[in-house]
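As promised in the previous annual report, we have extended the structural survey to additional targets. Below is the entry for RN213 ligase.
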Amino acid sequence: FQYLKRFDRGCDLDRFCYEALSVEGSPAECLQLFLLHCGVVDPSWAELCNFTWFLNVQLRDCEASVFCNPDFVQDTLNGF
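The corresponding structure token record, generated without further manual editing, is:
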């Protein structure tokens, strides 16, 4: 949710890291962003669950990768 919220606002996500246990927005806002970005017109709860699980895994792996660390790659992969 934190990534999607910033993505919709046009924020630079290259230096953003997930903030564990921080609460942002409301449950309704969270659901609205998931529905907007999941890619299915009328998703089931299972499809929303799979979308959020997959997105979470991908973003966690991205944060852990040295190749996605802006301090390591500097400006060679800006916006990647």
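Residues 45-64 form the longest helix (20 residues). The chain has a mean pLDDT of 86. These points will be discussed at the next consortium meeting with the crystallography subgroup.
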